[in-house]
Write a sequence for this structure.
């Protein structure tokens, strides 16, 4: 069997949380990780939910580094249908997705669809990159987040890594620089 992606590197695990600040404190207490970068409100525009135009997704989120793995925590603010509420309706929490970069975003997204993995949500982030969540729950138990190559996204990961390396433990949640 030919893989859909060629030895891709998973760079992130994401959890959906009810309360972002409480989740950051809980992760710090459990794993000793920090700081958590972000925390502000974000809007994911030009949202298509399962192929149909949908309301934008409103979230609050943070990145934190644990060794080589980036962890994202997302608090869903909006109420409309989306990949986040598909897995965790009514304020439930849990593991949502793994993320990775694509050499050819559209081709790789379309390859997942052709292999029977539908796109649950696709949207455009504030700086113009198109991102999607592929529904792999039937085979993996979670979603897949596909990124196009982006210096901005890679820069966010690098900023998170550097912050973890120099963190003095004083400020748990730090806004993006």
């Amino acid at each position: 069997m030919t893989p859909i992606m060629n030895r891709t590197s998973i760079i992130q695990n994401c959890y959906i949380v009810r309360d972002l600040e409480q989740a950051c404190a809980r992760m710090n207490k459990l794993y000793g990780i920090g700081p958590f970068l972000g925390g502000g409100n974000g809007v994911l525009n030009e949202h298509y939910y399962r192929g149909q135009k949908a309301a934008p997704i409103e979230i609050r989120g943070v990145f934190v580094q644990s060794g080589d793995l980036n962890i994202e925590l997302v608090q869903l603010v909006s109420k409309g249908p989306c990949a986040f509420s598909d897995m965790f309706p009514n304020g439930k929490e849990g593991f949502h997705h793994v993320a990775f970069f694509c050499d050819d975003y559209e081709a790789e997204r379309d390859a997942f669809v052709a292999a029977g993995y539908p796109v649950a949500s696709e949207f455009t982030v504030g700086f113009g990159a198109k991102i999607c969540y592929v529904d792999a729950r039937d085979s993996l138990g979670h979603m897949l987040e596909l990124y196009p190559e982006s210096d901005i996204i890679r820069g966010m990961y690098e900023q998170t890594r550097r912050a973890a390396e120099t963190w003095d433990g004083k400020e748990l949640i730090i806004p993006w620089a």
